[in-house]
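Data availability (excerpt). The following record was deposited with the supplementary files.
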Amino acid sequence: MKAGNWETLSNKRNFANAHLEVVTVEARTPSRTEPRTWTIVHRKSAVVVAAMTRDGKIFLIRQERMPIREVIWEMVSGQIDDHNADQEEIRKVALRELREEAGYELAKDGELIGLGHYFSSPGFTDEHGYFFLARPVEPCAGYVRDETESIVDCREFSIEKLRRMITENEIRDANTLGICARLSARGFLSLAPR
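Predicted structure:
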């Protein structure tokens, strides 16, 4: 099978569950005629949402993360179950995650701004995520946190506090660091020291 100048010679499934699949692929690349072998993790796509209040504060959730055995602050995020989701469905997932994880929704005059996509770790996985800015947001009426989630807190932070958290290595996950970089590059927030 060819994709562009990439030719897959073999594809062996090593492991799969509801969240990921591990395969070994032998392929020719655009720059190499000799086949190369890679182990690749296929994972569902995700959304990452920066939720901003009217006064420019950003919501973060504090979540238990078993693989690193820590509780960390991060942006709202979640997987997209439908592998064939179109842009409208992806937007719906972003708004659903905002409600479920943070208990917030777009205000009546709010907007959900798509900020493009990224690859989390392209050296071993095809996982990618879609960045969104939701602004302004307001609390959902009657919100009750889902106890099956591993979220222990949700708070709003000033941009200055967010910058300090990044500088002091309190924020360490790629999703949050990546969306902060995209927000800054697009002019939605400034991470420059004051």
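Summary of structural features: The radius of gyration is 19 Å.
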